[in-house]
Amino acid sequence: xxxxxxQELVISTLLVVSLCMYIKFWRLxxxxxxxxxxxxxxxxxxVANLHNFHDVLTVFLATNGCNFKARGPVASGMRFFVTAxxxxxxxxxxxxxxxxxxxxxxxxxxxxxxxxxxxxxxEAVRQQRAMFQNIFSNPRLxxxxxxxxxxxxxxxxxxxxxxxxxxxxxxxxQDLITRLVFDLTATPIFGxxxxxxxxxxxxxxxxTAMDTFMEVGLFRHTIPACxxxxxxxxxxGPERKLAMAQTVMHAFIREMTEKSKARCTDILDDVxxxxxxxxxxxxxxxxxxxxxxxxxxxxxxxxxxxxTLPWVFYNLARNPRVVSCIRKELAPIASLKATALASNSISxxxxxDPKETEHLxxxxxxxxxxxxxxxxxxxxxxxxxxxxxxxxxxxxxSGETILISIYAMGRMESLWGKDCxxxxxxxxxxxxxxxxxxxxxxKFMAFNTGPRMCLGKDIAIAQMKTIVAAVVWNFDxxxxxxxxxxxxxxxxxxxxxGLMMMVKQRE
Length: 507
Hints:
Its cofactor is heme. With 507 residues, the chain is an alpha+beta fold.
């Protein structure tokens, strides 16, 4: 009877020894690479580091020349090339962009917005971009967006912060910004204010559903497609959660569209939904495509500005010197408003219009510096159509997936200097501080680059300037000590635990 147990012991010992030797020799040959296991590839290494995935990826890239190859489990077809090298980015996104589409897998992962600018490739992209370029240049729509932003700051954001400041109550800045930006995004699209930033602070189930969409999107990225498709068919795990979120988002679009139709025609003519239908009647005739387009724009508007601003306020609260520089830049504008405010018995708050903040370079540098360190979309994904050689000399084969770590690019010493991890807006300014320094978009990809450059970049920056200027001028900010500041496991760089802060109104 002892013989079988002895055999099991010997076999187990051999397996353990073999495993240890494999790990040892792998580490000797590849000391700074993620572990490439037999059969399962690098999937265990990825899963083990998901809690700090972006920082681990940054270290791998920094110590391996900004590029490395990875693979998934055997027979999964998962072959990756990961890069943070600007020359490669220029080649992939501009010089030879036709060879690097988002691909069918990307469209399947984000199927809830299929057929939209964010999932399509080729000629369809050019047509939709041309349509939206015309829409976003509409002066009436831009005026509506600016007016909506100012109204929400005056009647929603500043009163809330005043209440919190007067009682010295802590609050979640990320939740507050999510509500603000959700209203800012939805109102110009539908001509109806969802009222998420009202005094009652209602539950915003649709915003939670949008978060779920991005979280499950990351899950789909990290496992073989056959796994999540089986889970979707069986309606289990994250796929069940996503199906429920999809129902919530569809119901929200239906409700808001019905409210829009109930409004008078002259108002509807100014909102984004009607501009989309007017510019492309085929979209208006396809209810599913129109719904997907509207969801995509809700996500794009909310997730860029809404994800960036909490990180901006986090950085500012920890860097009072930067806050002082922004206030110094705002002071001449604020002084011109002093007389008008003195005669206003309702509020002494100063609010800055987009035209007033348009040329404020230090304020913009502070925003760009936050975007460098905390880009709302930390990773871009492309697929290789035909075999190619990158400027770095790496050979790519048809079918390989390319991951561009925008997060890592913003933290590369070779690109930004030895203080690359330091929040320092001055790196964006000319020596005299009078103007912004030119930084190529293939080095700073927060707004993408090449033919897919973000169409709403100027709108997003204008909104952020308006919001940040009002908060910084009127309040002192403090980040609550002891909280865990880390990104959520998602396709966007939200804070996992929110951002607890306190404010105090300035005299």
